[in-house]
Automatic annotation (TrEMBL):
Taxonomic source organism: Pseudoxanthomonas daejeonensis
Gene3D superfamilies: Glutaredoxin
Entry protein name: Polyketide synthase
UniProt domain DSBA-like thioredoxin: residue ranges: 3-204
Classification via Pfam families: DSBA
InterPro entries: DSBA-like_thioredoxin_dom, Thioredoxin-like_sf
Lineage of the species this protein comes from: Bacteria, Pseudomonadati, Pseudomonadota, Gammaproteobacteria, Lysobacterales
């Protein structure tokens, strides 16, 4: 069964949703189908550049002030930690473009392990406060998925993969994807947001039974997802 996941590596609900999806698969036990997972890029903040801006400063501008920002970060962090994810927004996270990270994911899908690279990128941002536009951060994340440092740097130093990533970003817009994470099951059923594991398990059951489409929901960094 093919699973297409649109995600951004600075989206907290994408990390939460990734793990909830995995738990949903586990709930199916022996009935779980073999999965072919494909990761696709999405940029929550396409205007971000390579110059780091403190995340709290960027969030305050986007969400209407420091107080609202602290509420969002505290609620999201608490949810992540309840899922066993050591999210820590006191590690000096910064706002930068995620385009280089998506190019790394493009490379990993072809020459390494995109699942492991994606997990390393999430941890670099949410746990360690690393700059995801920094080539060294990307080299280390690539190593988690079996990519040689020289190969990663060769991609980052050229335009390799750039056209392909931009084409996938355009595809997401054409498909009407405005929030992430978005999971598409077998090209037929969509479930959006960091839904509970049971919702993912039910969506997979529906797909296997060719039943009704799974429900879609999610708001801009609300309780279940993030939108641009």
């Amino acid at each position: 069964m093919r699973i297409d996941i649109w995600s951004d590596v600075v989206c907290p609900w994408c990390w939460i949703g990734k793990h909830r999806f995995q738990r949903g698969v586990e709930l199916l036990g022996d009935a779980a189908p073999p999965l072919e997972v494909h990761w696709h890029p999405f940029q929550l903040d396409p205007d971000a550049g390579t110059e780091p801006v403190p995340l709290r400063q960027a969030y305050a501008a986007k969400f209407g002030g420091a107080e609202r920002t602290e509420q969002i970060l505290a609620q999201t962090q608490a949810t992540a930690r309840a899922e066993g994810l050591p999210m820590d927004f006191d590690r000096g996270q910064v706002r930068v473009t995620t385009l280089p990270a998506h190019r790394l994911m493009w490379l990993a899908a072809r020459e390494g392990d995109a699942h492991l690279v994606g997990e390393a990128l999430f941890r670099a941002h949410f746990v360690e406060g690393r700059d995801l536009a920094d080539p060294q951060t990307l080299v280390e994340a690539g190593a988690a998925g079996g990519l040689a440092a020289g190969r990663v740097r060769a991609v980052l130093d050229t335009d390799e993969g750039l056209a392909e990533v931009r084409a996938e970003l355009a595809q997401a817009q054409a498909m009407g994807i405005r929030a992430v994470p978005t999971f598409v099951i077998d090209g037929r059923y969509a479930i959006q947001g960091g839904q509970p594991p049971e919702a993912f398990a039910q969506a997979l059951r529906q797909a296997m039974a060719e039943g009704a489409p799974a429900p879609a929901s999610g708001e801009a960094c609300g309780p279940e997802g993030c939108s641009a």
